[in-house]
Amino acid sequence: MSRRAAPATVSSASAAPTAAAPAPDASAASILHQPTAVWAVAFACVIAFMGIGLVDPILPAIAADLAATPTETEMLFTSYLLITGIAMFFTSWLSSRIGAKRTLLIGLALIVAFALAAGLSQDVESIIGFRAGWGLGNALFISTALATIVGAAAGGTSSAIILYEAALGLGIAIGPLLGGLLGSISWRGPFFGSATLMAVGFIAIVVLLKTEGPQPVPTRLSAPFRALARPGLGILAGAALFYNIGFFVLLAYTPFALVPLGLGSAVNLGLVFFGWGLSLAVTSVWVAPLLTRRMRRSRVLWLVLPLLALDLAAAGLLIGSATGLVGCVIVGGLLLGVLNTVLTESVMEATDLPRSVASSAYSGVRFLGGAIAPPAATLLADHFSSATPFYAAAAAVLVALLVIVLGHRHLARADGAVEDPLEEAEAIAVGDS
């Protein structure tokens, strides 16, 4: 197997809007020295990712005020993530025809509309439906934003991914905090707050993302599905599906586990998950690059995935301790930050596919994993014990590890090397068939 460095190819299909500027040397470029267009998209990403954790602190309040069961309330996550995952498969097809900027703006507009509608709802079923519409807008925005940042950022793919994951971590950190503060007034507050902030993001994209860049080559509707036939991308997507089960059990189920421990108020939950998201942001930006400079990306996954499984198992063992469970949440954030960044970097480098296609395929699969976790967790808690969802999440993360370990020979390119030319040609043929 050849160990030469993989070329960082970016096809015209993934060309993203960027301010016209000479490309800086990748080794010299700082992650902070980015075109204005990149900062505009990153800012909107922060707001978009706030939507994931925004409802976390108000889940118990919604359940109480609208007479909903925990499982019904968890469907606010499932409808959002399910539609996000399904729609992700088609975002590259749309963005390659109407352009990245229009796709981003349509996504933001949908989020504003459905967040407002959710805030005005009178029953949990309506909120579940409007969260699904929110998920559609989220899919259009997030998948296109990732490809846009990767294509436009200075400093190469790794710097772009770190910036994207920093936006994810910051958004996920601020989301619960804002949700807790606004939720202490009314559970409707976070929805109205999110709609307002997304409107600001919409304006930022309109004003600061001034160019469309080169006209992208339209991709086939089936491109993301065929992309999953590429061994490297398929393995990473499969691992991410199970990994995201662990991610969303920690995010979506833990608020209900904290209620009996006296931490069920919107403000308390907001503070807990602010710490979680802040931990995630810190390791995304500083720890993940430190590790990937010293070992292969696949080896980082081999190291950190079992640590996450142990953390989730510890959460199950410490289910009766508020201090212990909060500690597991914070440690989980630290581990998730590393895993998010390394998995996303690996996906962007695993194939020679356009960035938008790879992003759509991978994101679609991983969000489907997230959609399964929240209601499954509450059902497991109802039928067995409140600790069972954490043990199940730990098992899912170990499955993700097993997928990575068994498929490691197909991850050479993701690790910074290209496969043997014959193997690479066969993989491309399978993906294009």
Automatic annotation (TrEMBL):
InterPro entries: MFS (IPR011701), MFS_dom (IPR020846), MFS_trans_sf (IPR036259), Tet-R_TetA/multi-R_MdtG-like (IPR001958), YfmO-like (IPR053200). It is found in: Cell membrane. One of its GO terms (cellular component) is plasma membrane. GO terms for molecular function: transmembrane transporter activity. It is a multi-pass membrane protein. The keyword Transcription does not apply. Residues 1-20 form the signal peptide. Its main location: membrane. Gene3D superfamilies: MFS general substrate transporter like domains. Keywords: Membrane, Signal, Transmembrane, Transmembrane helix. The chain crosses the membrane at residues 37-55, 75-96, 103-120, 132-154, 161-185, 191-211, 232-254, 266-288, 300-318, 324-343, 364-384, 390-407. SUPFAM superfamilies: MFS general substrate transporter (SSF103473). Residues 37-412 form the Major facilitator superfamily (MFS) profile domain. PROSITE patterns: MFS. This is MFS transporter.
